[in-house]
Model the fold of this input.
Amino acid sequence: MKMLIGGAWTDASSGRTMKVVNPATWDEIGSVPLGGPEDAGAAVEAAEHALAAWSEVPALERGRALAQTAALVRGESERLAALLVAEQGKPLREATDEVRGFAHILEYYAGLASSLHGETMAAKAYGRIVIEKRPLGVCVGIVPWNMPVLIAGWKIGPALVAGNTLVLKPASTTPLTTLEIGKLFVRAGLPPGVLNIVTGPGESLGEALVTHAAVRKVSFTGERETGRHVAEAAAPTMKHLTLELGGSDPAIICDDADLEKAAAGVVGARFYNCGQVCTAIKRAYVFSSVADRFKALVAEKTEKITVGGGMEAGVGMGPLNNAGGYERMQQIVDDLRGEARFLAGGETTDKKGWFFAPMVVTDLPSDALPLREEVFGPILPVIEVSDLDEAIDRANSTQYGLGASIWTRNLERAGRGCRDLEAGIVWVNQHLKIPPEAPFGGTKGSGIGRENGPKVLDRYTEEKSILIRS
Ligand code: NAD
Done:
């Protein structure tokens, strides 16, 4: 497949390509251009060229372009979901949800178009004050491989409806579905250069986009360390930044919770997408008085998950997406073998593909890595706590602050969790649901800024004050 630059499907200027493999089989399933700094420059130039005309298109018409693409995506969701399974590894059911979720995001932003308006006020001393909302200009969206389609929607939707143009860079292991969706934007009649999709390594192509002087905003989703680097690289040219980084979401299970529902919810929110979700539950803190029962339920439900290729019937969990993630996971499991107790999983498989069985561990040392850092894979640590104070202290003890949940039937405890858990999003008796209506993003080391929600267009526009005296 080729990149989309200025409405044309192009090769990398170097002529080089990179392979995309299926993580369940290691088979090569396609290749894309290996873009570099020259291609970044060409894409930004195309986006600059398209900017003036696109920013003058009425917002409702820009919204209509998104809605028309959403309809095409819905019409082709089966084909797109199968391609997403092939490059990402997730089960077909999850891939289908993600593709339809992408269409839903575009529809949400099409609806927000009508909220884009300025203000006017009479002010005797100055005459009239007019506040216009202007697009920022050329934006860059950088996307990770775990939810490549959904997160692309979080960047395309608000940027375009607010009148900006965009250069989007998917992750190197998951560019194919995004490029196919690019074809649907073209088919829906989006003018050339409004959306450009470039493929290539983060360190060269991504870096060139982030440092480009003509780019006014970078919306980056990825690891914390990459995010820190992106912030530094973007600083000299004063760009607007949204950083959606990693998470180590805690879940607190109180002794009054419906344990059956809590165990099902926690297992679902840990092993979805093979544990590779920024807001997956990465630590479960359970009150000691119900810990034995909760652990037994969690272990039982985890062992029932069928692991396999995402297109196989009945599969609940696919492989990890890439070799780097597999090696990191292997190291974590090896380290934990000597210091923790496995309630489920833990055996190695010699199956082809980056597969792990889902794991539940307990009795970890308090400084074990999964209790401090984000672990992007299928392992759930369960930790006993004596009460809610201890649970909240330990839940807040990492550098992250993306999501958190509390499982209880007690309103007072739920309220305490909502108030004191340090997170951008807190769920009560659920986890992982991320509707476009809810602002999404982290506090502390999980990032800055928010995506989605009714006010997100403020992050893709700039106010211009005009004072008029006659
Ligand atoms: P990553 O940081 O390795 O890569 C993310 C993207 O950045 C990729 O497209 C990559 O090519 C690009 N990139 C890498 N180096 C770059 C550079 N120097 N300049 C510009 N771009 C560069 O992350 P990943 O491994 O793809 O994704 C997993 C991480 O993403 C996890 O930490 C996860 O929690 C996080 N994540 C966060 C959210 C959120 O909304 N908060 C959502 C999903 C994933």
Q: What stands out?
A: The mean pLDDT is 97. The pocket of nicotinamide-adenine-dinucleotide is lined by residues 142-147, 151, 169, 171-172, 202-203, 206-207, 210, 221-223, 226, 229-230, 244-247, 278, 374, 376, 402, 442, 447 (CB under 6 Å).
